[in-house]
Amino acid sequence: MTHPFRTHDCGTLTTSEVGQSVRLSGWIHRKRDHGGLLFVDLRDHYGITQIVADEDSPALGLLDSLRVESVVTIDGEVKARNAATVNPNLPTGEIEVFARAVNVQSKADELPMPVAGEQDYPEDIRLKYRFLDLRRESVHANMLLRSQVISSLRGRMTDQGFIEIQTPILTASSPEGARDYPVSYTHLTLPTILRV
Hints:
196 residues; alpha+beta; five-stranded mixed beta barrel; two-stranded antiparallel sheet; 4 helices; globular
């Protein structure tokens, strides 16, 4: 069965796919308008792919009208970049996708803080707009690292015969809702790692 949103991830296309028709989905990360030639960096969890729409592309008008962080699905053809435009900093830097069609999954409003770039923002702004902050490159990289460390630790402990037990933690709120209290100290246990 074909995936309805993608044939490839945004971080996997290489010159071996040149000439293929592909479907990509992700956030519009950046846009660069060169007068009748629009470049869009499309980002998903796995990376970034450059999308190109020119005056011959029916996708140009719609892509041009969308704000960054809008979610789109792009159908297009993989083409090799010429030597002068290759981006060695991206795994997909040797190719670009010429957009033939675009389907808007979600339009973004004007952002209170941009996702692209690593500008410093006050903590209260970052917490208020946490759903945007979590998309930023450094925060995303930290989440991936944390996941990899935890997965590695669990795997190593499992290989040594440990099992992980997570029992439910039962709590009750006070009438004012200020504090949560354990229902029973006698029967309450925390997640435990045991060796069998």
